[in-house]
Amino acid sequence: MQNMLTIISSALCRITGKNVLLIDLSDCSLVQLEPADPNPIPGLSSPTNPAAAVTRRAALTLCGARVVVSRSFADFTPQATFDIKKCDLHRLEEGPSQKAELTREQGLQYYRTMQTVRRMELKADQLYKQKIIRGFCHLYDGQEACAAGIEAAINPSDHLITAYRAHGYTYTRGVPVKEILAELTGRKGGVAKGKGGSMHMYAPHFYGGNGIVGAQVPLGAGIALACQYQGNNQICVTLYGDGAANQGQLFESFNMAALWKLPCIFICENNKYGMGTSVERASASTDYYKRGDFIPGMRVDGMDVLCVREATKFAADHCRSGKGPIIMELQTYRYHGHSMSDPGVSYRTREEIQEVRSKSDPISVLKERMLSNNMASAEEFKEIDIEIRKEVEDAAQFATSDPEPPLEELCNHIFYNSPPLEVRGTHPWSKLKSTS
User: Fold this and answer.
1) Dihedral, CA atoms, 213, 219, 220, 226, nearest 10 degrees?
2) pLDDT digits (tens, 9 = 90+) for 14-44
3) Distance in angstroms between the alpha carbons of the first and the last residue of the chain
4) Please, which contacts does 274-277 make with residues 24 or more away whose CB atoms are closer than 8 Å?
5) 0.70 cut: is pTM over it?
6) What is the DSSP letter of 251?
7) Pairing of strands 264-270, 273-274
8) pLDDT tens profile 201-218
């Protein structure tokens, strides 16, 4: 019954242009419909929809329910300006604005993006514990504002490469949830056809999660070199974690990028712990935004999607204007352990995790901002949550029922756009033919 109320409430919103909440006051069902009702509700005519037969008249004559909230969408604030945390700067005379404009549509979109990533990661946690997902699996919940804020500030044609905690960026770069979960379960319908798994997902202008710590940083510098060489005004966002920040290959990449003024944003997602080691125990200097020395940098509140968006816009403009690379440190936090094999509470307390959740959760921060400024209603957020939960459940169903890739596809896609070649198969005498 509650599910039906949600569907009808949504339909009434479309009919009346008002935000409507229906409360179930009994166990009564829908009244009998007149067969010749001339006004079907738009969007509810799909044969797969359980409310396919619901009409305007039936929706308005639901037995046992009454309209308790009726607000026009025009009553909501369409746009608001928020004060955001100041960025710490290195070798910059000025930084991003301390004020951020947010439209109602943007806010709802950011909320949907972050909540989808959160639900997707929680479902991955569940599937892993059921031993449906195997191997390495690094979850992103807690850090959603980083992925959502970066994507909101760059163009779809810009490039992005990250480390192995890659599910969130795979989604923000345009890959559906079902293809991500199917890749995690090793199914044919996965984004990398079931062969990449958690750390190796790809999409147009997205060069994946990379399993080798820090190895994506020189690759990102190379992508930025290609952008510069082609003169297409594109940039590359190159992400790494605080655990990779002390690697020599990062500093080699910084040096080359600065020499050649490459359009590259180097972003350190500082979630406070590299595997099970706190940043204070791992780094003599935890000012990661200053690590480029001769490269300008910013330290940003990575738990606020608006802070991340404004800082990334500033950094993207810096790169596109020919000033060369820039470094951003996003101060964020992961709720899960380093990977699924790490319980995450042996080197930090449960109280520490709970404090971050209660005070700085990126989804809650955005939601409270919008509610307190009358930009949306609690009922709207509930409806979005219900839609996302269904999307993730459907994706999980696909990811557990889709077939695994057949053995004969084992050697396909070794090289891109190359002629077929023979590859030794599962034993020395079997040969498999590759295809690109």
Assistant:
1) 180
2) 544 555 554 444 443 333 333 444 444 444 4
3) 51
4) 274/241, 274/242, 274/243, 274/244, 274/338, 275/243, 275/338, 275/342, 276/337, 276/338, 276/342, 276/346, 276/347, 277/243, 277/347
5) yes
6) H
7) unpaired
8) 999 999 999 999 999 999
